[in-house]
Amino acid sequence: MSRKFIKKLKSIKTQDGLLNPDRAWVARNRERLISDIRQSSSSNNLHANNKFTQQFSKGLHIFVSNRVLSFARTGMTMVLVGAIAISGWIVSVSASSSSLPGEVLYNVKMAKETAELIVASVIGSEEDEVTTMLKHASTRVDEYQNSKSSEQATQAIKSLKKKIESTGDSLAKAEKKSSEKAVAVAKVIEEKTDEILISLSEEESVVGYINLDNTEEENLDLEKELSEKIGEAEGLIEETGIKAVEVLIEKFEKQEVGEGLISKEEVKESIAKKLNKLVADVSKIQETNNVSSTTINIVKLKTVSSTEGIVLDKIDSSEQKTTENIVTGTSEQRLEEASNKVSSASQKVEETNQKVEVGKLEVGDLIEQNNLSAAMDKIKELGEVKNETKVVVTEASNAVINVLKEGEAQIVTVSTEELSDKTASSTLNSVIVKELVEAGTTTTLSN
Amino acid sequence: MLRCLYDQDCNIFEVSASIYMKTLVTEKILVYKVRTKRDPDAFSKLYDFYIEPIYRFVYFKLSNKEDSEDITSEVFLKAWNYLISEEKEVNNFRQLIYRIARNRVIDVYRERAKKSECSIETIEIAATDNIIHSIELAEEKVELINTIKKLKHEYQEVIHLRYVEGLSVRDIAVILDKKYANVRVILHRAIKKLKELSVRTPN
Q1: Which contiguous run of DSSP H or E holds residue B5?
Q2: What are phi and psi of B4, to 5 degrees?
Q3: Partners of residue B47 in chain A, C-beta under 8 Å
Q4: pTM confidence score
């Protein structure tokens, strides 16, 4: 609309005349109106008692429009509801962090882990995703170690296996995507799987305890299943770790990635770690076999006929780590079988030790020659030998346990220090304790 | 951007947005005082601010001085009663007082229509005709008013409120109880029609 037009329109009201009110009337009307208002205000006298909240509310409505207030009200309500939900969630999530399989808050813990994994996969890299998976795998190991029953422990180990399998799948996917991603993921897996294996193999007195006085077959079966599952899990973790190192070697040798991502020294260090782990495992197997061997020898020496048992005085049963009644009365045949198994196991261990010694030197030479793939292959070969030996030693150990079980004996995990501190009241007990101390045994025969 | 304000002598003048906002805040403070403390002095300031625009608005519709004075007084009394009422919310005093004025004028039309036994539209036309004869205005202003009066009542109202009284489209929408978009459309059409009529008019 033209300015002229607008100006004309506006000018209408500035015109003196009847369009504007008479000024005298304006003044008169004002006086009358205010007078009426004052009179009505004094007669009612309502305004004096306005509370602060009412005044505030009225002020709010005057200065802030209804639309803004309704938005603000809705917004505040949503924020409060969200805050309550989140705070409740935070409380339950933080409370669930120590929960174990089968407990009420365990599902909350699982949901939290799933959410973490989703966030890592969506926002983070493959490396972040695998790191999160392995973090959860470590949590499964903690759950296994803190478990209060075989069922909980078994459940934790099963979940651990699944996590490790997922990690392996992630490595395979990363390999398909790019060499850089494969290397990044392999490095994480190599490092974390070592840590998990160390945690898993840590001996806890709770886990090592086998009460042979407990004649419930079901519990013994559960324990056996748990042992098998632990063995499988350890094997899977090792396998995944080795696979990761193989990927590193492959990418390095083919020069598919730069030195910045993976260097020769890092690859050599990874191989060396695997070799050291192998040697340590073989040493542990040997130790287990030593316990079996010593125990069976002692039992053989002290065997009496099944009709005569030597009952020893009970040492204070409140001390959980003491040897209690040892009553031997096992059949000679079973004893013989166990003894043979232990002998075979000892022989196998001896052979394995020799192979490992030779293998160590070979691997060293191969590394020096920068033949890293061959070095890793050698380690894998030695690993297979180690696993076979472990099977034999475990069988022998189980046979010894059966012998002791038959004799209604209780075997508990004791340390060397504890053994040496014990004062047995009976001659036989003291002899056995002494001989166990001399053997330097520190592990439970169940391994 | 400039806004329209009235001083105490009811002279309209254009001001910057910042002064407009300041005045708006002052108005809100006065309303707050009336609502919470029933302060007659605060209301008297509001009266001074709006007496002429409301009178003009009412007179433009009724074309009778006495009636306009009576109705305007009633409008301010109603406004006072509305402000002190605890149940009712007040966000914008300007919109409120114009709405009260418009509703009161419509009531008058209805009463007159009932008395004369004719339609409200007839009463409206009669009222506007009176303006042309009774106002002593310069010739060009008379022409302009004539042109405006040829428009639909709805168009007249929006043009008056927008260009004569200087109200915002949002305020007009609330006063006429229409949507913002509707008022813009009506305004656009009103202007277009006014232009057409102005072109047809010889001067």
Answers
A1: strand B2-6
A2: -100, 135
A3: 30, 33-34
A4: 0.48
CB A41 within 8 A of CB A47: yes
Q: How many other β-carbons are positioned within 10 Å of the β-carbon of residue B140?
A: 11
Measured between alpha carbons, how far is B57 from B59 in angstroms, rounded to an integer?
6
CA dist A402 to A53, A73, A331, A334, B93, Å?
Answer: 82, 73, 11, 8, 96
| Structure tokens, A60 | 């709010």
Q: List the structure tokens of B91.
A: 């966000």
The domain segmentation of chain B, as residue ranges, is: 2-200
Whether A115 and A136 have beta carbons less than 8 Å apart is answered as no
Q: Is the ipTM of this complex over 0.95?
A: no
Nearest Cα to A209, choosing from A321, A113, A77?
Answer: A321
Question: At a CB cut-off of 8 Å and minimum separation 6, what does A401 contact?
Answer: A210, A212, A411, A445, A446
CB A9 within 8 Å of CB A15: no
Amino acid B195: pLDDT: 83
Reference A33, options B40, B6, B52; nearest CA is B40
Nearest to B77 by CA among A359, A37, A8: A37
Q: Are A20 and B56 in contact (CB under 8 A)?
A: yes
Nearest CB to A21 within list B69, B136, B165: B69
pLDDT in tens, A252-299: 888 887 777 888 888 999 999 999 999 999 998 999 899 888 888 888
What CA–CA distance (Å, rounded) separates A15 from A409? 120
Residue A317 contacts by C-beta under 8 Å, 6 or more apart in sequence? Answer: A324
Cα–Cα distance for residue pair A6/A436, rounded to 1 Å: 113
Is the CB of residue A26 less than 8 Å away from at least one CB of chain B?
yes
Q: Give the 3-state secondary structure of residue B2.
A: strand
Q: Closest partner residue to A13 among B56, B84, B86, by Cβ?
A: B56
Taking only the tens place, the pLDDT of each residue in A175-226 is 888 888 899 899 999 989 988 888 887 744 333 333 444 445 556 666 777 8
Q: Collapsing DSSP states into helix, strand and coil, what is residue A447?
A: coil
**Maximum C-alpha span of chain A:** 138
Integer CA distances (angstroms), B54 to A26, B103, B105, in order: 12, 12, 11
CB pairs under 8 A between A and B: 125
What CA–CA distance (Å, rounded) separates B112 from B120? Answer: 8
C-alpha to C-alpha distance for B11 and A340, rounded to whole angstroms: 120
CA dihedral B121, B125, B127, B132 (to 10 degrees): 160
Query: Minimal Cα–Cα distance from A101 to chain B, Å?
Result: 58
- The partner residues of B13 in beta bridges, in order of sequence, read B5
